[in-house]
């Protein structure tokens, strides 16, 4: 029979509990639902831990829960030994749940404020702020800002890193308010992350994260200061959560600017910088959306008057052109005017306005990144994060727990512990890179599978829609083409595959990053960010890159088609090109992604909270305390804002990389982001527990990723215009045949363009494997068919070889790419150079703050030295005066 005590002795034989452990005292709830204090009403609650009392429940594996209890007791004793005060209260709803409330006394706060180099006020800011250029419109703009009666503007201070022994030089007006609640929660979490819960030999286990993962605690979180829709009845409670809900998260405030200072104060700098970036990105999108909408309207207005769409739809031009089959045997001949509606839709997106818009977006993305750097620099100063990375970056608890090897620090030349040797690190990184590469290849394999699907389904649709005996489909042929049906279904399937692979790879990426064991949280997030973005980039954009740059490019001609995998004939573009299919793909993925994300972000947390409240409902006579109300909310994931950033950066890629094919992308992104800001605000304010505040200087690894996407966007848009759209062939035709036909000037028209882009094929040259089995009822005495290419006609000495016109078009495309890229890159470089990253006003304030800090610290040191030296100096002078007086001299000058 299994001996539980033997298991306990083995598990904890090396445990070394702190001396005289005083385990967590318990207290009954005082029936104050809005209270943020211990039962004494004096000590503020800085953090809450939740666990399930094993004594109140019978367990099948009781030894596991005895181990958990011992670890919890050790952990709580360690917290109290580190100076924290604890108080436990049993749940009102479920008697098995215990809530451990944590308070940090003043001395502990001062100690860890110095450890974390928290910057605190030393003197009010005496620099006059520059007047806003919009001050003359304040009577209008004030309605778009949060109410100043509710959210008052706080006094600006110069700040300095806190030092405990120089407390008198800091602006301490009220000790209870000196450290904000977000600072207190951050310091509490820092201690929780480093408090030990078990020691076995030389191995020391610590950190609340491991205890949460092991089920020792069910939750750990700081408290919201009130209910989101009811003002707190507690005296002195600011109810900042209520203010955020009313002026930021409520749908009625959708038109207002965000209260960024209050967001930063309540949730910390990391949350604040995300919403600042999202708001700035959305505001900049407004300019792109206006231009993109204008481009779309121009294309919509000119679709019926466009020469090439009129020629396709004309019964005597497009109706007289017989097109060759686009697949073997099952496909048959078809008339060009059957794609009339598709050609009209194509003209909406493929026009000269698109070229202007693509160049505009290349400039826009540069201005967006440069102006964001300036705005970010202002926030860095205002939020005291200018020197954050140099001062405050601490090792992760998971990293410290596995430091068992020693090495000589190359900088300090002092021995330090590291988790693995250089060889071990190389092995871990190599395994991680190999796993990432495997998953990227898996994505490419899925893209190939979808391409095969497209080919197979295209043949099936073609057989049904082009069949001679299905005359009932004749009225719909103008609207339902094989290309369109294939494109829509393939886009939907591609989106489903993308979502499934995202779910799988997310866990793989987290596992790889945990295995690599980065030293700091910033390194961890940067490593995970790079892996996830690389995966998402290939996952979301690979199908778009295929349609834009691969589909229809290597198809041969009807007599000698090119086959994929030796079986499927390569997919051809519509006679108008593949641009409309790329637009369809982007619409499905962007729209589907936005809908799916909103379901995940809004509906899922709301439903989970609703179910939890239903399952734990109590009678109306029971009063539920603040900490238990927060426990009923959803926990924030370990990665926090990672998925929010990832969602927006992927959207940024769609807006910039393929905007030449879809000018409405900025409009859709703008509408989505206007909802996204309020949805995210509503979500974290009403549906989630309060996030542990974190410091952040900038948006981290996302900044270089955005810059890389911006550089790539110039090349992709130039190549889309050159190789995917018909822009360059039209321009070549316009300047070659329309402007100066036969060497004489004539009216500028595009007549005859469609005929010039279609080559001729003799149907007698079909091979037995590709010759259509059936012909349409109208196919009589026709000896040739047309196909999209620039080749010599049958009977020519170089029949079916590329014509000279083909090489003219290729040369024009390459020249266009080179010229546009150089012009845009030069413009981007000039803009980056002339727009400084840090505004002059911010530079002045930073210098002023450094000067004041140095003066204060210098005066402090001088006073301390003078204070210690004064008794010695006085004694020395008295002694000297006495000796000189004996000699008849006087020192009094």
Automatic annotation (TrEMBL):
The answer, when asked if Kinase is one of the entry's keywords, is: no
Anoctamin dimerisation domain ranges (all copies) = 37-260
For this UniProt entry, what's an example GO CC term?
plasma membrane
**What protein does this entry describe?**
Anoctamin
- Report whether Secreted shows up as a keyword of the record: no
Q: Which InterPro entries match?
A: Anoct_dimer, Anoctamin, Anoctamin_TM
Q: Which family does it belong to?
A: Belongs to the anoctamin family.
Q: Which GO terms describe its biological process?
A: calcium activated phosphatidylcholine scrambling; calcium activated phosphatidylserine scrambling; sprouting angiogenesis
